Every structure is written in structure tokens, then in C-alpha cells.
Amino acid sequence: MSRPTCAIPNASSGTPPEQAAKHEELRASGRTDAHPRDRAGFGRFFDGLELVEPGIVAVSDWRRTGKQRPTAGDVAIYGAVGRLL
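The structure corresponding to this sequence follows.
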């Protein structure tokens, strides 16, 4: 029997200043309610879960295909999958 899983993306707080400023503009205008988090803050969503490989990484690092992918800084969104223990 497979165990239930949970996939979560979240904006990372380690973005270049111009991206961070644009995100703050969107939040101030009410066009987004996303809250950027650092890796540790995002990781707390997975407390009590087993992280599936590759763990907490930029969403562009999931399902690598060998094609050129955006860098973690370009994407600025963490992603992870957790499985119930």
C-alpha cells in the first residue's frame, strides 16, 4: 500500500533584490498573498513527514530531463514532496 504524499511549492526568500521588490509590490496591492520563506521556514511544513528525493530544492530541479533549466535564483520557488511516516 502506498503512503499519502503532499507536494508543496513556496516562494523562496533568497531572491535577488529586484525580484523581492516586485513581490512586495504584488503583496501590497493584494495581487498575491504568497509569503516568501527561507529553506528552514519552508521545511517546517514537512515536520513529521519523510521528504522524497531530491528533498527541498528549487522547483526547476525536480524531474530533471537533461535540458537546460532555469537556475534556482531565476525560479525563486522551493518545492518538496513529503510522505506520511
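The helical segments are 17-28, 39-43, 72-75.
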